[in-house]
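Let us practice reading a record.
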Amino acid sequence: MVTSSDGRPAFRAGLAAAAILLVGAPFAAGADPNAPSGPIAGGDAPVPIDSLRTFHESGDGAAFLDLLDRALYSDLVADLPPDRRPARPPLDLQRLVRSLDPTTGLVGLHPVGDEVFAFTLTVRRASTAILDSPGIPVMARRLARWMRDPVAHPYDPHAGLVLYAGLLRPLEGKLAGIRRLVVAASGPLAGLPFEPLLMAPADGPDEISPSFLARRYELSYEPTLGSWLAWSAAGPEAGARVGSDCSEPGSSGRPGGDGSSGELLAVPAPPGRRSAELALRLCGAGGRGALVGPFPGDDPGALLDSLRAERSRGAEADARTVARLKRRVRRADPAAPPSAWVFPLLFGARGTGRPVPEDAASTRPGAR
């Protein structure tokens, strides 16, 4: 069962409602998502799930969004020592709306037991949902185990099918017309690639199927929804380079620490939530985005060279170029397991779209 709400009439009306809710109406019980935000006291303080449910049922999407974002952040830093927890990126719903182009959608996913609390945002609508999705943690762990060691643990198509059916199929109607999907997720979903999720069973005996999610979307990721706004809005012309793993407090993730702005960083890291942790540390350091995770041939420089070469042939956005390179790897060896083409994960790279004008959110007709 899925319960979905576009909220009170103002919120249900979509984008216009989001802006009106922020600038002209008081929030229902809950924090103002435009208020400055930082680490939650203690870092691992539990987010009150009953409050998320209440905000969803009452249609208070802004309060739901703020609490969900706090849950994503709190989950990610819970295991980090207090002195190594980066600050929670500030969340501003109006800026979040204006940062999107018509083909980009944001999805926040917070699994709790057999339920997943979800928030979706496009230029047409913003909505909340509580998904009844049993088995998500188990299937996510199967996928993570396969990503760590695909030889010992072959890809499990059932896990790919269950994860898609439980996380994204219920949200398809809210993502109509979306080509680039930005995912922020917590718990066992943090740092998990969504490219190998299966929209339908594989067609043949091998693992490569046209139904992998990578065929529908250009996928990128965020540690929190607020972190999407923390990256620089610079375009690809700002350059790209290999960065350090930025694991030490105060590390910017840039070799030499020269403070260059707007670059796309390539940061080697183990698969899984470590990628999301590093992205949280990187997102406020001035770069436009980061490729984080294992690299083909353990050579981040080679992938960046491929990005530059691809762009010189006319590819524009980072997300589109990365997706094209991953499709090329898959076509070069159709029998290769998906682990060969889903890594590394792309974070940020938001500056190449056409942002919605500041007044568009208040003038665009609502969409149910």
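A brief commentary: Residues 7-44, 247-259, 352-368 have pLDDT under 50 and may be disordered.
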